[in-house]
Amino acid sequence: MSSSAVTLAGQPLSYLPHEAEEADRLAQGIGGNVTMSRALAESAHGLTLNESRVMMLAMRCINPRHSPYQYAKANESVKVKVTAAQFGEMAALDNDENGYTNRAAYEGLKSACDKLYERSATWKDGKKLVKMRWVYKAVYHPNEAWAEISFSPDMTPHLFMLNERFVRYRLEFARGLRSIYSSNLLRLLMTQKDNGFKTIKLEDFRLAMDVPASYRYADIKRYCIVAPVKELNEKADIQIEWEETKKSRAVTSLQFHFKFVKSEGTRQAQLDLG
Question: Per-residue pLDDT tens for 156-213?
């Protein structure tokens, strides 16, 4: 189906800048970059794994150097299109026996849209705790297998016209991850991708990783550190080592050392131009 035939509330999608580039992106696989403010990157995203996949795909549609007005008509929120085929590629789902998009991709995209409006990112600003909705609207179109994602107005400053305090990484790094903790840890590490070293207080790690309040440190170590590090080492083209800092016998902070397995210089240069 051509982009001119697809509508958002009766309006053609052709005016959205990312539509003209989508064919090239699909031909190259799950390419593109995820870019956000540093505050957002270090926040608790409050998302399930499928919701996180959808939001990364939505952010991939945006050029952070552009004004949000290039992605929205007057008095409208910024909106982009995420397809079931893209979701299936992001989740590393094989096509069915007939070569069509896996049914799980349709179900995953739909289930993510069902709760996205209720999700908020949370971070500390001094003594204040900031909570911000991710989307103004999320609509799944079942007969056309795509979702309309409209970012909340308060979220747009964290996605557009970013200067120095931003985080950017290749969407490909998150492809096929099976744990939300792996996705969250990847995002945290990418805040320090230039030097390959991230140190973080345990209480800040709990917040940014969306660790359940009931988790003791043994649970955090098992589910939020050891397992995600193992998965990222296997799938994300990076190699991670980590260690604890203790005061008396209690763990107070964590240190992560990481490096890109393949040559990242050329890739990073391409990324920064993207």
Answer: 889 987 666 789 999 999 999 999 999 999 999 999 998 999 999 999 999 999 999 9
pTM exceeds 0.90: no
Amino acid at 268: Q
pLDDT band at residue 30 using 50, 70 and 90 as cut-offs: low
Q: What is the distance between the alpha carbons of residues 22 and 28, in angstroms, rounded to a whole number?
A: 10
Phi, psi (5° rounding) for residue 191?
-70, -15
Angle at 233 between CA 230 and CA 239, to 5 degrees: 125
223 within 8 A of 199, measured Cβ to Cβ: no
Q: Which pLDDT tens digit goes with each residue over 144-158? A: 999 999 999 889 889
Q: Which residue has the tokens 């992605």?
A: 71
What is the span of the domain harbouring residue 224?
Answer: 179-262
Residue 60: exposure state from Cβ atoms within 10 A (0-12, 13-18, ≥19):
buried
For residues 128 and 256, membership in a common domain is answered with: no
Cα–Cα distance, 55 to 43 (Å, whole number)? 14
Same domain, 58 and 101: yes
CA atoms within 13 A on the CB side of 253: 7
* Sign (positive or negative) of CA dihedral 178, 179, 183, 186: negative
In a domain, 274, yes or no: no
Residue 201 lies in a domain: yes
- Whether 273 maps to a domain, the answer reads no
Give the Å distances, CA to CA, from 25 to 60, 68, 234, 238: 10, 21, 25, 23
